[in-house]
Write a structure and sequence with these properties.
The protein has 340 residues and is of the alpha/beta class. The chain has helices spanning 37-45, 60-76, 90-101, 119-127, 153-167, 184-197, 215-228, 240-252, 268-276, 287-302, 328-331; strands at residues 2-5, 12-15, 26-32, 49-53, 79-85, 107-110, 132-135, 147-151, 172-178, 203-210, 232-237, 260-264, 281-284, 312-315, 318-321. The radius of gyration is 20 Å and the shape is elongated.
């Protein structure tokens, strides 16, 4: 499980990490980001070295981001290196960032684990003339960044609302189970969902609750919602635990098939839950594209093509359901567990 700073100063959201990870250990040694022979050959002839520092190294979301970045680096003949910690903590990420600066990379690609605490370590790169691209997360003060790339969380909430409405013919009651109040990413998802539901006059939002990122609390909230609202047809869980708990609550109440549960992301555990029908909808981010675009913008920065760089990019999400999850056009967005 990772804690991710959400961009509001001290908010957090959570993701699963790969099982068996050594919690809290910092991987300070820079590793070649693309391990294949083609990437090795490209690395031997390149004069540019980019370093990607993820929120944590063991998360399928960030592994998928790395793989997209590595593929783009290979195309451009850039050496991509990878370094970070196995927990999403600024106290672990900052020493890694500080140590990398001594190697004078051509560019830094980073998912800041705290939007305030990482400002000074990142600013040290900027003062050294090294461009910095933020991926997934960002800084509170973005002025020092060359670019920032993330998914569109508001649009993800809209997509969840539209999919639930479509599955239930634009009728019935819906609810949101969010994680922790004040988290910008998940709050944006909730905001998008609530705004989009206003487009459906025959649907109503009966609750927007918080589970404190507790699976058991999410399940309890779902059970209470089902008892209180017999016409409930959908629950939007803004992160893994919220959606999984809601799905378990629906199953426990005997309403599987009647109430649709929407979750977020596409890590292996979530894909299993979707396949089993515990979750019915997944709003999937595109970390591979985030990584690839970050490499492209870094390359533009170091080669003097700064006019091609977009300062802030929000990527649209992909919707997966049980009906389309086996379609290659959807399944290609499922997250990876191995570095390419």
């Amino acid at each position: 499980m990772r804690k991710e700073n959400s961009g509001n100063g001290r908010g957090w959201r959570f993701r699963l990490a790969t099982a068996g990870a050594a919690a809290g250990l910092v991987s300070a040694t820079l590793m070649a980001g693309a391990a294949g022979p083609t990437a090795t050959a490209a690395s031997a002839s390149t004069k540019y070295t980019f370093v990607l520092v993820p929120g944590l190294t063991v998360d399928p979301f960030y592994i998928t981001m790395h793989n997209g970045a590595a593929a783009e680096a290979a195309k451009l003949g850039v050496t991509l290196k990878w370094a970070g910690a196995t927990q999403f903590l600024d106290t672990l990420q900052i020493p890694v960032v500080n140590s990398i600066l001594a190697s004078k990379p051509s560019a830094l690609l980073i998912a800041p684990t705290d939007d305030v605490a990482l400002f000074n370590p990142i600013d040290a790169y900027v003062k050294a003339g090294i461009p910095v691209i933020a991926v997934d997360t960002t800084l509170k003060n973005t002025s020092i960044l060359t670019a920032a790339i993330s998914s569109d969380n508001y649009q993800g909430g809209e997509a969840a609302a539209d999919t639930i409405a479509k599955l239930h013919h634009d009728k019935g009651a819906v609810a949101v189970i969010n994680t922790i109040k004040g988290v910008s990413t998940t709050d944006l998802r909730q905001d998008g969902f609530l705004a989009e539901m206003k487009k459906y006059p025959n649907m109503s939002v009966v609750a927007a609750d918080y589970d404190q990122d507790s699976l058991t609390t999410a399940e309890s909230l779902a059970r209470s919602l089902i008892l209180a609202h017999p016409n409930l047809v959908g629950i939007f869980g803004t992160n893994l635990y919220s959606a999984q708990g809601a799905g378990q609550g629906v199953i426990a109440a005997g309403d599987k098939g009647k109430i649709s549960v929407s979750g977020y992301d596409a890590e292996p555990a979530e894909i299993t839950l979707l396949r089993e029908g515990v979750i019915n909808i997944l709003i999937i981010q595109n970390p591979a594209e985030e990584g690839a675009l970050a490499v492209q913008y870094a390359y533009d920065a170091v080669t003097g093509n700064k006019a091609a760089i977009v300062k802030s990019t929000l990527l649209a999400n992909v919707v997966a359901t049980q009906a389309n999850m086996n379609d290659p056009s959807v399944s290609k967005y499922f997250y990876n567990t191995k570095l390419s």
